Write the structure tokens for this entry.
Amino acid sequence: MAKNTQPVLKRCKALGLSPAVLGYSKETNRNPKPQMRRKQSEYGKQLMEKQKVKFIYGVLEKQFYHYYEMAERKRGITGEIMLQYLERRLDNVVFRMGFASTRREARQLVNHGHFTVNGRRCNIPSALVKAGDVVAVCQKSQASVKFKTLLEEYGKKTVPQWIEKAPEAFEGKIAALPSREDIDYEVAENLIVELYSR
């Protein structure tokens, strides 16, 4: 399985992202180097938006393009549907529910089989949840120190409107599909669609 091993803070700075979007609370301590002011081309802007969204969700090019193709086949606004698919990934849902501090950690926990979807164990981070699904921590994992500390630290964090979860509960329900308003970072998804439809 391929994974992105770039330093997170360095990549965030290059993409103009806040590390908080990824679940990191620390900022870089280094003195910023003066940036060369160079006019960015239209292609450069489109590419930057695509790289930003790929980095946030930890998705590589092939899988990201697959989400674009799936969104293009559905009726509606392609960019919004693509972001909806990315939000519905199991690793992202685990992160949104507060069962992990970052999406990277959520991906690893899902890979290790710590979660169930509708009572069935699922170890595929890219599995898409749908409205009505119940995502829960496995019974065996609930007793572990790791999940108890995670729940103490992140269990009280506010979850998006499309997820129903009681504070400090080991499960949550997908109440509805995520909407464009639920995306809590700045992204111009229309630029990504323009890039792929060249």
